[in-house]
Design a protein that fits this description.
The complex is a heterodimer of chains A (about 525) and B (about 400).
Chain A (H helix, E strand, L loop, with lengths): L27 H22 L2 H9 L9 H8 L5 H28 L7 H4 L2 E4 L15 E3 L1 H12 L5 H9 L8 H11 L9 E5 L4 H17 L4 E4 L11 H19 L5 H25 L9 H14 L4 H19 L10 E7 L8 H9 L1 E6 L15 H16 L4 H4 L3 H14 L4 E7 L3 H4 L2 H11 L2 E7 L9 H14 L20
Parallel strand pairs in A: 1-2, 1-3, 3-4, 5-6, 5-7, 7-8
Helix pairs in contact in A: 1-4, 4-12, 4-13, 6-8, 7-8, 8-9, 10-15, 11-13
Chain B lengths: L6 H7 L6 H8 L3 E5 L14 E5 L9 H7 L5 H11 L8 E5 L3 H12 L12 E4 L7 H23 L5 H23 L10 H13 L2 H16 L10 E7 L5 H9 L2 E8 L18 H12 L8 H17 L4 E7 L3 H16 L5 E6 L7 H19 L5
Parallel strand pairs in B: 1-2, 1-3, 3-4, 5-6, 5-7, 7-8
Helix pairs in contact in B: 1-8, 3-4, 4-5, 6-11, 7-8, 7-9, 8-9, 8-10
Classes of the chains: A alpha/beta (about 525), B alpha/beta (about 400).
């Protein structure tokens, strides 16, 4: 029980159950701050659940039960943090929580089975979970809502076993067991008819991989043929760095916008678009400044919080919510203060790592563990290394044309997709460039075993890292399914490498083996 | 039935990636354009002075090296190709053109490039990756045309000086259509009550047309067609007629295995089978040939990565139509293990063809080479028996 960073044995908080023994003591000021944020989250949840329709949804949708674990998820991502780092993590996490609560509330409001607000539903455009929502940047009166985010993506962050039922449903229906569990779970939700039904239309997208693309077919079958919600398939080019695909990509955006206009009766609003574009550029600038700090000895904004925040801000928000600009400013102010004071987030920094590949979703807080257990600083990760291009933000005739290309570029470069598609250079060659820029001595390479884009370059990663003298630690997992490789299985891969190759002892030995098989 | 005169000849062409006819064509000074996927318009690789060779890895055994590079989770077709490339088995090629279609195929070719498996001592050798539309519409067509220009015609012209004019494309299409016409006519015999060609024989002949230069194989196809016109069919009827649909079947023994179990493979709807791959391309004079070729490929493509609703529904409707046209009793949906696109299409297709169209459906995944699998044999035998029982009970479809 201590104020100082690294004074606690964090592993001692774990039990064999779903939750920890007790909350962490971080000194009076930090503990009170942390507690106030915990109250804020409880208030957010309380405001959500007080509505009868949301209670009804709790009993209608199996995945809703996972939302009971929201406070625990935030706790997992703030382990060991103090001062500015704790505040940065809370700004990121709490805003994401608030945003998801609003998303859930909106979905249930329009859901034919729950709120059945038909007028509201007519203003809803369904979007994919992993989809860049750039095509919604010019529709201020419409809501782009993602059912997959709340039914699949978030539940696994909250509860490691949330996907298991839906994965089994998809496989019982005949889906091969070797596909990526994320679209597999989404397909399972659809097969189970366990997603809210609402919206004037839906925009699907070929997002990260073949599995995501094909999983959409399962969803659109139910959505369009059974629920009567027309679907547009936005086909973003795969070789997104090539000049000769950009016109096609821009036309796809034009077609998607025309589809939305047709089915909602709303018109594209350029004024609103350019307002959003300004916010996108602002967030990009902030993210770049955080990455610049991470290239020094005093990185400030990094790890799984950055990944989650970037994913939400860059992709789901895409300039549409001013609150994220405010959050960006606060984060930057805190980061700069800590940077000037040469502060560090953990007791000891031993290694500087680039985290690459597709993260284990059921163990998103693994990066916190890396830092606290072994002193490995996750400087940046693949999910956070998205587009840094400045898009046109002034409303001129030329920029209105350019805007289609900008939206196309963002859509092509949505998170994960910008690395899993686009040829080996964006996944392989740029990793080594980042290692150099960030002065990293090791790469933590998530090997999501059913991600074919990553697996397909396995040998190249090995050989090239060896040639460059960079330590490459493979961390295998099955993304949404902890039954294949457990959280401890994930940790052991690092433990073994650190002990046998580096011959190091952990900074916090209590974290090396944790009884969290049954934890949320 | 009496053996087909050229069957062994065709079989031999499939024994090695670099078959006798490829050697002959190269000896004639032709450029060998290797490719890997149905989404590459074949006639554009068969311009005057060039010929196409669809890469296969016959008699694949160990795939240890490619498994190291790509792990055991990538489909065996992509791994088999990489293994063969590392072994030097594709050194006959003068270039390779692949679509960034399925991720696995793309990664296989990228590994070939990174490992410098091909093109040694061939300064003009090139790798090209194409963006292929995932929807069939006007925007997709524009993309397809541009990609073919930039990634097929331009490099072939610049590196090897090939004539890529409209006239050259039309000539290549004419040659392509002649092969297609012959295959279609041969394939139509499968519609007969007592077919005069087995599914296995037809598969051999069709596969051979993808891996051998067309101008060298067309005579044998003509002779085979003539021979079939007077061939006496087998007395004994098959126990069931099935359409086989799914991912590419390179292992000819798979079709043999199905037929050994008593099922007649009356129609083939897989990546590089005859449907739609051997449908002729109808060219008009009032539009450039390249656009027409691309339109043909885009609209006829049955790859599950085509993601618009019309295409998705069309894929299942086509299987239904084939089952009707070829009088099938049942449908076998198959996929190469670890193939993501066909994993989803197989799941949906097998349910829809059964539930909505009323066919008995067998849904299976399989390795690249499976010819002697007892497990698969058992499943197909059981499927055939189930169809027979249904027929006995009067359930029909």
């Amino acid at each position: 029980m201590a104020k100082a960073i690294g004074a606690d044995r964090l592993g001692d908080f774990y039990t064999n159950g779903k939750v920890r023994k007790r909350r962490e003591w971080r000194g009076l000021a930090d503990t009170m701050y942390d507690y106030s944020r915990w109250l804020f989250i409880m208030l957010t949840l309380g405001k959500f659940i007080i509505k009868p329709r949301n209670v009804k949804a709790m009993f209608r949708y199996r995945w809703m039960a996972n939302y009971l674990a929201v406070p625990m998820m935030v706790d997992r991502h703030t382990q060991g943090l103090r001062q500015e780092y704790l505040r940065i993590a809370h700004i990121e996490q709490d805003l994401v929580v608030e945003d998801v609560a609003k998303l859930l509330d909106s979905l249930f409001r329009g859901d034919r089975r729950i709120g059945n607000d038909k007028e509201f539903s007519k203003k809803v455009v369904l979007v994919d979970e992993n989809e860049m929502t750039a095509v919604m940047m010019g529709f201020p009166t419409l809501k782009g809502l993602s059912r997959e985010t709340v039914s699949s993506y978030i539940p696994v962050l909250l509860n490691q076993k949330a996907a298991c039922h839906y994965i089994d449903v998809a496989q019982e229906f005949g889906l091969a067991g070797d596909v990526c569990p994320m679209p597999e779970m989404e397909a399972g939700v659809s097969i189970d008819d366990d997603a809210p039904v609402l919206g004037a239309c839906a925009i699907q997208c070929n997002t990260t991989c073949d599995g995501s693309l094909l999983g959409n077919g399962v969803i659109s079958k139910r959505l369009e043929l059974e629920d009567g919600i027309p679907c547009f398939q936005l086909a973003a080019p795969l070789r997104h760095r090539e000049d000769d695909v950009q016109e096609y990509a821009a036309q796809e955006i034009r077609n998607a916008i025309a589809f939305i206009e047709k089915h909602t009766g709303e018109k594209w609003d350029w004024k609103y678009y350019f307002e959003c574009a300004k916010r996108v550029n602002f967030s990009t600038a902030q993210r770049l400044s955080w990455l610049e700090m991470s290239k020094t000895d005093y990185p400030q904004v990094f790890g799984s919080n950055l990944a989650l925040y970037t994913e939400t801000n860059y992709m789901a928000i895409c300039g549409k919510v001013p609150a994220f600009v405010k959050a960006d400013k606060k984060i930057s102010a805190l980061a700069e203060r800590a940077f000037r004071a040469k502060k560090r987030a953990a007791r000891e920094y031993r290694h500087r790592a680039i985290v690459w590949g597709v993260q284990s979703h059921f163990y998103m807080d693994f990066l916190v563990w890396l830092l606290n257990c072994w002193g490995i600083v996750p400087l940046t990760d693949m999910l956070s290394m998205v587009s840094t291009k400045v898009i046109a933000e002034e409303d001129t005739p030329e920029n209105r044309e350019q805007a289609y290309y900008d939206m196309a570029w963002l859509t092509e470069n949505m998170i994960m997709r910008n690395r899993t598609h686009g040829g080996y250079k964006v996944l392989l060659d740029e990793l080594w460039e980042f290692c150099e820029q960030f002065n990293a001595d090791m790469v933590i390479l998530w090997e999501h075993m059913s991600c074919k884009a990553l697996d397909g370059l396995h040998g190249q990663f090995e050989e090239m890292s060896r040639a460059r003298g960079i330590h490459l630690v493979w961390v295998g997992h099955d993304l949404f399914d902890p039954r294949v490789i457990s959280r401890q299985g994930v940790r052991d891969q690092v433990n073994n490498y650190m002990r046998t190759v580096f011959r190091e002892e952990p900074i916090d030995p209590s974290l090396e083996i944790l009884p969290d098989e049954d934890s949320w | 039935m009496k053996d087909l005169k050229h069957l062994i000849y065709f079989e031999h062409l499939l024994q090695d990636a670099e078959n006798q006819l490829i050697k002959e064509a190269r000896h004639d000074g032709k450029i060998c354009v290797a490719y890997t996927c149905e989404n590459i318009p074949e006639p554009l690789l068969n311009l005057p002075g060039a010929f196409s060779a669809r890469l296969r890895a016959p008699r694949t055994g160990s795939m240890e090296m490619s498994t190291y590079y790509m792990t055991s989770f990538l489909c065996e077709y992509s791994r088999a190709l990489l293994e063969r490339a590392i072994e030097g088995g594709f050194n006959f090629a003068d270039c390779i053109i692949t679509p960034d279609g399925c991720t696995m195929m793309n990664r296989a070719v990228e590994n070939m490039e990174l490992l410098k498996t091909m093109g040694k001592d061939k300064p003009k050798f090139f790798f090209q990756y194409m963006e292929i539309p995932m929807k069939a519409d006007d925007n997709g067509l524009n993309l397809y045309v541009l990609q073919c220009k930039n990634h097929i015609l331009k490099p072939l012209s610049e590196n090897y000086g090939l004539d890529v004019s409209d006239a050259a494309i039309r000539k290549a299409v004419a040659e392509h259509n002649e092969v297609c016409r012959l295959i279609r006519e041969i394939g139509d015999f499968r519609k007969e009550e007592r077919p005069r060609i087995t599914g296995y024989e037809f598969h051999i002949i069709t596969l051979a047309t993808y891996v051998a230069p067309k101008y060298l194989i067309v005579d044998k196809l003509r002779e085979t067609l003539e021979e079939l016109k007077t061939r006496e069919p087998e007395e004994k009827a098959y126990r069931a007629r099935v359409v086989v649909t799914g991912s590419e079947i390179d292992d000819v023994d798979y079709i043999k295995l199905v037929e050994d179990c008593g099922a007649y493979v009356c129609a083939d709807r897989f990546c590089l089978g005859s449907i739609p791959g051997r449908n002729p391309i109808e060219l008009k004079d009032d539009e450039d040939a390249l656009t027409q070729v691309c339109r043909h490929y885009m609209y006829s493509c049955q790859c599950p990565r085509m993601m618009n609703m019309e295409k998705m529904l069309g894929r299942r409707a086509l299987v239904n139509q084939l089952a009707k046209d070829y009088k099938a009793d049942g449908i076998i949906y198959e996929q190469i293990k670890f193939c993501d696109p066909w994993a989803y299409e197989r799941m949906l297709g097998s349910h829809i063809l059964h539930d909505d169209y009323g066919y008995p459906v067998l849904s299976v995944d399989r390795p690249y080479c499976i010819g002697t699998s007892g497990q698969m044999r058992t499943r197909i035998q059981a499927f055939v028996e189930s169809i027979e029982i249904k027929n006995i009970q009067g359930g029909g479809k």
